[in-house]
Q: What sequence folds into this?
């Protein structure tokens, strides 16, 4: 059994679908932060069989976790301060996501314009539908 | 600075003002003959569209302004690989306002984000064509004397027809609007439109045949099945003659039912109907110039 120590301040992202932790690492841009990150892959889980866990030691105001709600609603976000869980963060769908998914419409300007970000806007919160800012095509699937 | 990307960019109150101005221009063209003296419009057309481009150019010239531009992407810097963002930054140095048509959806929005001058979406792929919609709304308002409480039939290519998509978006803001979509299975309205209608509780139905709905319509909007929207020629040839409006079908229509068409027509409306007073598609083209004149004045801040 692998043991990863407690963190003093930061987040523990639990119940990540097995194998998806690196996607989340990328979308939260954790590589750009000068902080300790533990990536635990394929941990045993009663609920899920296997799961991934991310532990991020950072200032809790430093990280914008909005994109997590788009990636997977089932992720549990534990907020840690002084080594204890002080809050379980509720994930809220972001109004806009940038470069998380790509527009698949071959007629969209994003398919040819250099340097143009792929921006999707939340069009229907209830049904979790995002549409491309430029062509209004429905967003589907992670990139 | 304002741009026009979608017909929803203007509130219904702003549209009323725009249409009042367009009607005043139509009644008193001389009053506006020098309203744009010294101003330049760039018409950046990355795909050919003689009709829309000439309508914009006519509008600007009738206001006393001048026009420059290109009418085909292959003649422009785009052929050398220049991005839309770069092109509009340069055009902003040459002109006071820009009308842009582009085969890629959302291109005019990219331009607007980087532009130093107002940008008008003159059609972007199969997505939006707001000035056609303004033309359609002005035509309906002027001839029906209202924009609410109408049953509107839309027939033909409802999948790729951007004029249809824009018109539906715009009309959903008026009370008592009902839509009847008449198209083959292959060319039905896209789901984002029907989703939007469901969200807004706007009643609509989808049928395959014109005859069954003709008596119920206040106006019928016909569209052309456009060759350039198909990926292969076989599909185009199979579907292009699917819905043709002729005098036999028009006998089923009410005496006040208007026929609109964004033009150009190929054969979806029989020429025998051209003298029918209900056929208003050529008047529509005239309203198109007036509404573009009103739009140019408004975006340039020259409407009083």
A:
């Amino acid at each position: 059994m692998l043991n990863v120590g407690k963190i003093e301040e930061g987040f523990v992202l639990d119940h990540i679908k097995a194998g998806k932790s690196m996607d989340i690492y990328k979308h939260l841009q954790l590589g750009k932060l000068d902080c300790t990150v533990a990536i635990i892959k394929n941990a045993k889980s009663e609920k899920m069989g296997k799961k991934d866990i991310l532990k991020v030691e950072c200032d809790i105001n430093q990280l914008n976790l909005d994109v997590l709600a788009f990636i997977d609603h089932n992720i549990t976000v534990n907020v840690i301060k002084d080594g204890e869980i002080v809050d379980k963060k509720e994930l809220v769908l972001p109004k806009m996501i940038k470069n998380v998914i790509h527009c698949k419409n071959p007629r969209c300007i994003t398919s040819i314009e250099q340097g143009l970000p792929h921006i999707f806007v939340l069009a229907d919160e209830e049904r979790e539908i995002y549409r491309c800012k430029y062509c209004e095509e429905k967003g589907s699937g992670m990139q | 600075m304002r741009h026009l990307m979608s017909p929803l960019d203007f509130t219904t109150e702003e549209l009323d003002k725009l249409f009042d101005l367009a009607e005043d221009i139509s009644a008193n063209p001389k009053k506006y003959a020098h309203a744009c003296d010294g101003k330049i419009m760039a018409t950046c057309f990355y795909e050919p569209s003689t009709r829309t481009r000439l309508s914009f150019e006519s509008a600007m010239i009738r206001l006393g302004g001048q026009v420059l531009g290109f009418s085909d992407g292959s003649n422009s810097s785009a052929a050398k690989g220049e991005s839309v963002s770069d092109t509009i930054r340069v055009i902003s140095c040459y002109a006071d306002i820009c009308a842009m048509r582009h085969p890629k959806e959302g291109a005019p929005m990219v331009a607007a984000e980087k532009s130093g001058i107002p940008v008008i979406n003159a059609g972007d792929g199969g997505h939006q064509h707001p000035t056609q919609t303004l033309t359609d709304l002005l035509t309906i308002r002027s001839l029906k004397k209202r924009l609410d409480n109408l049953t509107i039939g839309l027939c033909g290519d409802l999948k790729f027809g951007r004029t249809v998509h824009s018109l539906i978006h715009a009309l959903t803001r008026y009370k008592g609007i009902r839509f009847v979509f008449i198209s083959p299975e292959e060319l039905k309205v896209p789901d984002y439109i029907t989703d939007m209608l469901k969200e807004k509780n706007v009643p609509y139905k989808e049928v395959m045949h014109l005859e069954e709905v003709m008596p119920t319509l206040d106006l019928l909007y016909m569209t052309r099945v456009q060759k350039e929207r198909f990926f292969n020629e076989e599909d185009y040839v199979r579907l292009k003659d699917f819905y043709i409006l002729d005098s036999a079908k028009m006998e089923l229509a009410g005496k006040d039912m208007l026929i609109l068409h964004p033009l150009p027509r190929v054969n979806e409306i029989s020429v025998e109907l051209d003298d029918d007073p209900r056929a208003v598609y050529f008047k529509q083209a005239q309203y198109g110039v007036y509404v573009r004149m009103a739009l140019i004045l408004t975006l340039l801040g020259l409407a009083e």
